[in-house]
Amino acid sequence: MRSVLKTVAVSVIVAVSGVAYAQKGETVRIAFMDPLSGPFANVGQNLLKSWQFAASHYSGKNPAGVNFEVVGFDNKGSPQESLNTVRSAIDQGFSYIVQGNGSGAAAAIIDAVAKHNDRNPGKEVVYLNYAAVDPALTNEKCNFWHFRLYPDTSMHMEALTAFMKDQASVKKVFLINQNYSHGQQVASYFKTAIERNRPDVKIVGEDLVPIGQVKDFAPYAAKIKQSGADTIVTGNWGQDLTLLVKAINEAGLKVPMYTYYAETTGTPTVLAAGGESEVYVITLGHSNPEGELGQIRSEFKKKFNDDFYMSASATGIQLLGAAMAKAQSTNPVKVARAMEGLSIKGFSGDVQMRAADHQLQQPMFITKWQKNDKQHPYSVENTGYGFVPVKQLDSKVSSTPTSCQMRRPSAG
Length: 412
Prior knowledge:
- The protein is α/β, with parallel strands linked by helices.
- It has 2 domains: 27-151 and 289-362, Response regulator (Rossmann fold), CATH 3.40.50; 154-283 and 364-397, 3-Layer(aba) Sandwich (Rossmann fold).
- It contains 12 helices and 15 strands.
- The chain has a 7-stranded mixed sheet, with helices on both faces.
- The radius of gyration is 21 Å and the shape is globular.
- The N and C termini lie far apart (51 Å).
- The relative contact order is 0.16.
């Protein structure tokens, strides 16, 4: 497959003059909020490093000429703790927040940021969501101050079922997801999308598991096996995916599994322990990108002996730099307005922050877990395996309509 991940520089598809801006040389501080302790800490720590690495990589090398600094705040994955971290970040003078692990936490942050901004004109905060995928966040809960960098669940399911449409072997699906908004939405949107794209496919079983609480997934693996499913679909992440894969391996269950997050910390190692397995990811990239993303991934591996798998962190830094150049300011109100409708050259094609709901529109990939070869040499978690591209889907394929009724701050 011919790689489409070309060398990119942040190329803003807006009219930006070449003058030196007043903000050149400023340091923009970004508060990162995700679990840095507890059962999902391994993922949170990787993503904090990813944001910090992307910030360092693009500091000074962006259209605005600004520097970026990312500081971690441990929200423990909890909506209540997220309120505390938002207050703490604001008290410390942060004007930009990023978060991604947990749609419940994301909803709490959206609400907290909106209330703060309403009550404190002149001290506004912007929130970049890089992975919380509940569609409600850019529909009925949409807010001017919230920008999502990652495809939501409805977009994931459009991409997945468009691919499944041509997979004749998919006939009986078992859905297993975490029992909170994200997992519930994965199940709901899959059912709707598969009915439209493959009405012959049957759902032969479904489970919602308590998030971060199940230590042994053997009973779930046994239930999947007993159902006669020929395909598993899961939005699980962190230990809830790692332990599910472990239980599936131990049960000798060899059926294709479609995931959102099999590339995240810990899961590849457990996948490799099970030998050959047919596992797919619906995502933004793959293990062997070329160009600038390939360079970032290689340098990150060299520095941390870890994998840079969240390209949305690099896209987020790029987007901020481009918006600050367009706004000729680091002021969060001006930058938020500049981000609306903004297009940049992404790692796999043009991406655009849709003004109507602040959902980034971008291409997606279906990738497959396989042993490394000459064409795909990158070893995820040093396992000798990686995620290779099976199909790239244009942004129009995964794009879904929005019901957002955006209330924007008055100008001036």
